[in-house]
Amino acid sequence: MPTGPAPTGGLEAQAYLFDLALLAHAEPTSLVLACGVEGEAETVIEAAFEMAGALTAGRLGKDFEGDAELERYARNVAATVLRQPDAAHAYALAIKHGALGGDDELIPMGPRASVRARPRNPLLTAVRLRDLHERVSLGYELRFRLGSERPRYPDDWNTSDRTLQEIDRRPALPMAWIPQQIWSGALAFDAPDDFGIDSPTGRTFASIALARYGTTRPWAVIATNLGLPAHSAPAYHRHWKRIHDSGRWPEYLRAVDGLFNRLHEEPPPIDYERRRLACGDGLGLRAIAQKVLAELPEGRGPETAIAVARVFWAKYTGGCLTMAHPPLRSERPGRHSGTTTPQVC
C-alpha cells in the first residue's frame, strides 16, 4: 500500500478540513462541492472522518513511526480526495491510498446484509457507485440509480435517510404511478426513429426501467405487475442493446432519472396498478362489452364487443394491445386486428 505523501500540503489540508467542519457545525445542510458533486456539508466532513479512520487503522508502527505523522498523512489524503474535480479521480486516488479500506470495506457492493451492517456515507457511496458505469449489468445500473450524479444504494439497503441532497431522499416509484408503457414523448431522450424510443416496445421498456430504478424488484415481479407476456422479454433486450451499442446508454439512464424526478414532482392522478388489476385477464371486459352492446337498438356482434373491450383496456390501463392478455391481444401493432377498431398503443 502506498505510504508516500498525498498531493495536498499538510497545512492546506488542515485548513480545508477545519473550514469544512466549521461550516458543517453552523450550517449542516448547506451544499459544498466535493469529489465533483454537491453534497450537504455534514455528510462531506463525515466522509473525511471515515477515510481518515480507514487510513489510520492498523498502520501505526508499520508504515509510520508516530501518531502525528500518521494523522497528518490521513488528513492530507482525505482532503485531497474531497478536492478532486470529479468522482472518477476521487475514487482512483482513494483506492491508491487505501482510503476506502481493504476491498472497499467502507462501501461494499453487497450483499444487502453486508451493506446494512452499518450506516454508509452517501458521498463515498456515490463516488464508489459512479465507478460502476458500464461495468455492471443493466439491473445493477438501475438498482444503484446510475442515471443520477449522486447514485445511492437501493431503498431497502439503506439503514438511514442520509443523502447528499434533499432530492435524493425520494423513494422508488410506486407501481401505481407507472403505466404499462410510459406516455408518448415523456422520456427526454432525443434519438433517431430507428431507436424506437417512442414505439410500444420502447415505451414499455422505459416503464420497466422506471419500475426497477432504485429498487431490488425482480424482473419477473415487474413484468407480472405491468401485465407483460413472458414472450416479450427478447424484444426488450434487443431494444436495450441497440441503445447500449450506440454508446448512448449513460444518456438514456440520465433520461430515466429525469423522468423519475418529474414523476415525484407531479405524480400521475391515476392508479395504474389498480386499473391493471381491475381489468384482470380481459375476459370480464369482453363479457361486459357484449352485454352492453346487446342492449343497443341496432345490436352488435361479438367482434364489435372485442374491439370495444380492447380500446377501453388500452385507454384505461395505459397499456398496449400487443402486450395485453390473450383475450384482448392484437398481434400486429398499427394494423387492424380483425375488427373495425385499429390497434391502440
Summarize the structure.
With 345 residues, this protein is an all-alpha fold. It has helices spanning 10-26, 41-56, 67-82, 87-97, 112-115, 122-130, 138-143, 200-212, 219-226, 233-245, 249-265, 272-279, 283-294, 302-317; strands at 31-34, 37-40. It contains 14 helices and 2 strands, in the order αββααααααααααααα.
Gyration radius, rounded = 26 Å
Largest sheet: 2 strands, antiparallel
Spatial strand arrangement across the major sheet: 1-2
Give the helices and strands as they follow along the chain. Answer: HEEHHHHHHHHHHHHH
- Tell me the distance between the termini: 58 Å
- Domain module tally: 3
Could you estimate the helical fraction of the residues in percent?
Answer: 40-55%
Average pLDDT for all residues: 85
> Could you say which overall geometry the principal axes of the C-alpha atoms support?
elongated
Note the beta-strand portion: under 5%
Low-confidence stretches: 1-7, 331-344
> Pairing-aware structural class of the strands and helices?
mainly alpha
Give an account of the 3D structure.
This protein is mainly α. It folds into three domains: about 10-130, no CATH class; about 170-270, no CATH class; about 280-345, no CATH class. The chain has 14 helices and two strands; from the N terminus they run H-E-E-H-H-H-H-H-H-H-H-H-H-H-H-H. The chain has helices at about 10-25, 40-55, 65-80, 85-95, 110-115, 120-130, 140-145, 200-210, 220-225, 235-245, 250-265, 270-280, 285-295, 300-315; strands at about 30-35, 35-40. The longest helix is centred in the first third of the chain and has 17 residues, at about 10-25. The relative contact order is 0.08.
